[in-house]
Amino acid sequence: MDIEILAFDCETETDVVCTPPFVNELFETYDVFELFGVGVNRAMLLMFLAAFVVIAILFFALRKRSVVPSKFGAAVEGLLSLVKDEIATGIIGPQGAKYAPYLISIFLFILIGNLMEVTPFINFPITSRMALPAFLAILTWVIFVFAGFKEQGLGYVGHIIWPKDVPIALRWLVGIIELVSIFLVRPFSLAVRLFANMVAGHVMLTLLLVTGYVYIVGFSNATFNGVFGALWWLMALAIFLFEVVVSILQAYIFTLLSAVYIQTSVHPEH
User: Fold this and answer.
1) Percent of the chain, pLDDT > 90?
2) Are 259 and 87 in contact (CB under 8 A)?
3) What's CA 147's distance to the chain center, in Å?
């Protein structure tokens, strides 16, 4: 029986493992439609959908402020208070209030984008495309570098290159390490951390679900094929629940690290 789950030809009767002729076929994104001559693919549509969901959540939760908010409104307000009070103000300090809108925005956007992995009929985290985590990481980088120059002027770079709280014999070495870390490693690690975690979970969940499907549908003549398929799906269910936790955790970590980087620029003495 042929299994129509791959974009490329696969001889299921002879091939134990199906491989594409070119590995880039596993990562191709095809345009869904064109808008003003620009191709729009599925990942782009989901990014707009995630942004729309964030706007809708904030609008419907906060449009009618009351003494006794609804359960939905209370949940959203609690989430916003967590980011504003515990992350923005709690880490950056009193100046964190002006960075709270940005931190709230990226937290909610990344959270919704991550949870698309476990959303029925979508099952694709938009943060598993490196371009999006990289863009968000660069945006955070621009903000904390701008904040550093705004608060310290040219002394921002001077404090990095020549840290006065380090023994003088080691200042040049620590300065080089800090310079590379702040201007190169931070945005790279921030992007890769989010990207790698979401790709790993997405690939694992997909493999488990597809393997279960293959056992049940593809190997219809095999003994106990239904049992093996059910076992693979039970493992997928466990990973599914785990990925919900990972999606929330990765959104929190990205936002937390963004606040930490801003704090080090605003308060270099810390």
Assistant:
1) 41
2) yes
3) 24
Alpha carbon distance 222, 240 (integer Å): 27
Q: Which residue, 104, 119, 125, 116, is CA-closest to 55?
A: 104
Read off the pTM.
0.84
Cα 188 to the chain's mean position, in Å?
13
The two structure tokens encoding residue 5: 């789950």
Mean pLDDT of 258-262: 95
Angstrom CA distances, 74 to 79, 81, 106, 129, stand at 9, 10, 20, 33
* Residue 70 φ/ψ, nearest 5 degrees: -70, 170
| Exposure string for 28-51, b = 16+ CB within 10 A, e = fewer | eeeeeeeeeeeeeeeebebbebbe
How far is residue 100's CA from residue 86's CA, in Å, rounded to a whole number? 10
Report the amino acid identity of residue 12. T
- pLDDT score for 2: 38
